[in-house]
Records
---
Amino acid sequence: MEQPVTAAIVEDHPVVTEGVASWIRSDPGQRVRLVQTARDLAGLRSAPGPPAEVVILDLELSGELVTRQIPGLVSAGYRVVAFSGHTDPAIVMETLDSGAHAYVSKEEGRDHLVEAVLAAAADRPYVTRSQAKAMLADQRPARPALSQQEQQALLLWFQGMSKASVGRRMSISENTVRQYINRARAKYAATGRTAPSKDALLARAIEDGVIKAGEIMSYKSFARTAADPPLGAPGH
Amino acid sequence: MNAAQPTALMSGRYQRAFTIAVVFLVAGWHLAGAGGQLLHNRTAYGSFAFQAAMWLIMALAVIAGSVLVLHDVPGWRPAWAVAVIALAASTAAAAASPDARMLAVNWAWGSAGWIGVLVLFRRRFTELAWFLAAEAAAILAVQVGDGLHRTDLAGFLALLAWSTGAQVAVAAGVRALRLAAGQAAAAAQSEHAARERAATAEIVQAARHARWLALQESAVPLVAELAEGTADPGDAQVRIRCAVQAARLRRLLAEGDEVSGSLVHELHASADVAERRGVAVEIETAGPLPPVPGPARRVITDAAIAILTAARSRVRITLAAVAAGIAVSFVADTGAAVLLPAIGDGVSIEHQQDGAMLWAEARWNSP
């Protein structure tokens, strides 16, 4: 059996921390091990022992949004899964642009948090419905161009269908559905601010055949500068 | 409507009353005062017909001036045209009077001054002052031309003090009253606005109270049961109750949000009944939505009600902007297929059944 993924929770409400811990415990495969809990980011940094692979970060700590702290966590080597009561697309986009691997709203937690943590540990995308909503609602001029198939798969997923049902609807396999959604996510990782986590996501997406390097370059061209590390260099 | 408009309306009503009072005063003076004097001294004039003609011209000036002020005709030209006609007629009447008794038989000076008050009282005070001064100067010039004696000068000054003094006093009084009326109207308006705000606050308060009461009946007992341990979160029934209450709380929070168009609100209203039945309803929107016309909204909400009625425990409704319109979708555990209502008014509906789960999408395309 593989080693479980180590995770930390940064959450200012103990009852939520307890809920997340119970979801992790109730995972039949015991694939995630909770190694740290902290009420704020200072608490995470001062915690003893080796750092966790994935940080489950509540975006609102003591009433303040901490999206700006995400780049710091990412460059310290953490993979960040944002866990928030917010579903505002602007906040979701800001979080992903800052280098978080995934965004899980509190309503989606039970069904998606453990899967999102596992995907993040492997630098694979995990697109929740709230994330799909933010991508569909994106009106920024610099948003990536999604293909019609990617757009359709995202829309059906946002609407609440299972991936199997999305596949039936689009007459494609469930695996292809996943591929379309993940490719859309990878295209987002290729835009906006640079972050080692985004490069790692992209590198893995290329490795998995989700997206071709050529498809990324056209998006990277306007966002990257010569000083940035070359593509494909994992951040971890 | 801004707050200034009703204020203007109210003070306008007071001002009209003052204007009518000035019209009656001036017309009354010309008819009774000047007319009476003219008839009383009718034998003293060289030509009574000429004096009567001047009187008629000034009567027409009174009528024209009254029409101007009652219809609120703006601008200085019509006002001053009437004033200058009155001035000319009055001067001509004075010039045609017998030299020795000009001041004694003069009926026109007072009328000309009152006509000036009538057409100029709404304008700057200096304009009326200039007019009255010109009128006095013209009469004095006529008197000088006739030969100015000490007694004439005394008579002139007495008449000047009497008629001009009264005219200036009336004009000043009306101005003061108009100002007071404006202030009174503004005060009344602000009181009215305060009453309106209080009434609105009461309505908002009542709506809040109603929502709070609804929560008292539903969410609060559930939370109490959970706290006491009489409700077990492991029980599927309890979880469904929690989901319903959570959906209601979410909707309560969403009521403060900006929602584009009434479609979202109508869907919320349609969901209400299903929620009462214990179905957890989730409504999500992605992106700015285009406004949907009424008939198309009816087709969409009809589909929503059919699905909500058939749903066993949960429904997710989403609204998303698509290329040329809007896609409203429903994912619900209806068990069996649902009979969806007729399409039309630019709305098409597609659906797919996967086991117990129904997916349906109503698309409206803008024409």
---
Amino acid sequence: MSTDETIISPAAPQPDRAEAVRSEQNRAAQDRATRRFNAITVTLIAIVTLLSAIAAFLQNDASNRQSSAVRDVQRYAAAQLSAALQSQQALNFDATVQRDWLNLAYERSLLLDSGAEADAVRAEHLAELMRLTTGFSPMLQEPYLNDPLEGVIDLPRYYADQEYEPTYWEQRREAAALINEAWNKKAATYVTVLTLFAVALFLFGIAATIGGTLRGAFVVLGVFIAIGATAWMTSTLLAPVKVRPEQAMQALARGRVDLYRAEFLRGWREKAEALKYYQSSIDQLDEALKIDPAYPAALSERASAYVQTGEQRLWDREDAAPLLQYAIDDYRAAIEQGDESIYALWNLGWAYFLLGDQPESLRYTDRALEQAPQQIGLYLNRALALRAMGQVDEAFATVQEAYERAIDQPTSSSNFYFHATIFDITQQLRAFPNDDLQKLLKDVKEKYVSLRYRKGQRIEPTGCEITAVAFFQGLNENNELIDPAEKFVASTETVYMGFDYTNLPVGGEIEAVVYLFDKEDETLTVQERLGLEPIGTGYIRITSPFIKAGGLSSGSYRVDIHINGEYLASGEFTVE
Amino acid sequence: MSEANPSNRFGVFLAIGIAVATVVGAILAARAAVYNDAANDADQAGLSSAIDLALTQSAVEAQRAQNLSAFLQFARHRRLAELISDQMDQIDSNSEAWAQLDRESSAEWNKAVNSRYFFDAAFYDKFSNTFDQQAFIDSQLAEAASLKDLNPDPEFSQADDDRTTAAQLVSLIAVLAVALLCFAIANVLENRLRYILAGLGVLIIVGSIVAAVAIESGVV
């Protein structure tokens, strides 16, 4: 329709021009406001898009670093496995060569002792073979052996040194795993941030398409989300990723080598040397912790060195409290820093036990038990703590539980921990005599004999009594014990232990468990069926398993006599 | 046909700029994904090599121990046979003692010969009477390396390079987002600044494309 054809009815009222202008002005103002609103929205969308691009970049970067770290974890795991296998194979070979060398040395010493000329020539042949053999194994060379004929192998040093490579690679793998964890967390956070930015963009988009006051609310909500996400992204970006320094890992590996050497020496009762290497280990671990104060493995290792030193001091009736407190502090710090291993909890419980804080000891031992309910050693530690708290019945019940578990589901370490507990209780009793502890020791010994020598047969009271025990140097022609003694000269081949008994069960079995310096020497154990009268005197022979090899080792011996597993008597003698 | 409004022309220009930035960003994202994928593949290949290396080293160590063990037996029996022979030279060859030593020497020599079959003779030096362990290990490793890749480092380096390239490309996407921001603000503004922002956006796009080509071609 053209404008010329417009018909204006004369009857219609004239439109209010002012109203029209106002309406036009309002519309224009609304249009301006909408344009301004849309301009702000578009700008916000652009800003959030830019932030999203930055978040995507950071996510990609974090994801890449995480991928590299995962790769390193796997790579170092392969290297660790390889190092462990190679080390084990080298150890096996070296042990074989060592055995050959020792056999040659023994044969040579016999030939030299004979004094015959032909034997001297033969001994020289063997000396030549010994020299030849030492060329085949690093164990038989400097610094472990300084004389191929008369030298003594420094086994603690040799075995400790073999620990270095596997430990080092283990630490590298764990360090890479930490990096992986940190970057994985960052990458995941950036994905969340990106999602939040997407939500903000969605809200801005909605606001641009709808009218009314609600659009303002959408924009405000979107801005809040974008600000929050930006703050989260920034804090994630600024959060440091912990990289464990190489020097710290090397220092830890050195510390473990020294700790291993100290443990070895302590096992050989070379206390002074052991303490020297405990201290050296602590020094190395101090160095590791100086470089990386929150290094959980270094804290745990140092704690282990402290607790073993403290334990030794305690058994020697010296003040161990400061060392044990250091150990506790280190274990706790290690746990706080993420060491979730059962060993940290187990050893922390033991450190508290040694310090005399039994409730804490029980607490951590129980926590370890939650993780490893099959570990017999933990039940036995628990029993010791309960006994120390005066809960004697519960202590016996816990030993019984350990025993039942060892019968039902024997772990490879079951016997070891019963054995170790006998040693620990014996040391405690030497330092702090106690009747309940003595009874507990009897119970543990009987259960140990049941597990070790009687295939888990229950120990029942036999009614037998051993009224006296004594040691003798020999037998006369009538097979009667002669020359009673408590001290025997060096190189004694056989010691006779006599005992008076009553009510010996028919077909009973004797198990005489022999301890040298409180540690069982299984090569000396006597296990025999008895064909004796119900009442009388019997004897057993304690003989070195080696023939013409210097007799029984020098040291203090204790012999426990069990009849059908029941612990009945004990006696002690010394070989000079 | 009427002339287009300058403001509309500018709007169309901005729309084209935004579209180009978006398309370039998408291409960069796709290329970054390709590089990340390649990096993962290289890592897998490297890990495979690392595991092969670990297995080979363990196997070679076991073989070394076995060979050396046999050689130790050989060397000992042989040396003892020699020593007994030397001893025989000192006594009457018609005596019973000589005959006894002869039997012993022969027995030792035969034991040495038996052991001889259990180590790799290629590494036995008759003149120095030694077994070259290092040469044995090196040759075993070289043999294994001739059949499979035992050096993971090149693959891991390639993976790292690919990831760096991907990261660089993704960083360009962030730069392109700045161009988008410039275009968006230029669209909102009504003064001369909008032309400057639009120009800046174009510059960023061009710069990003140049940088992307440089990254792809390995210049950067």
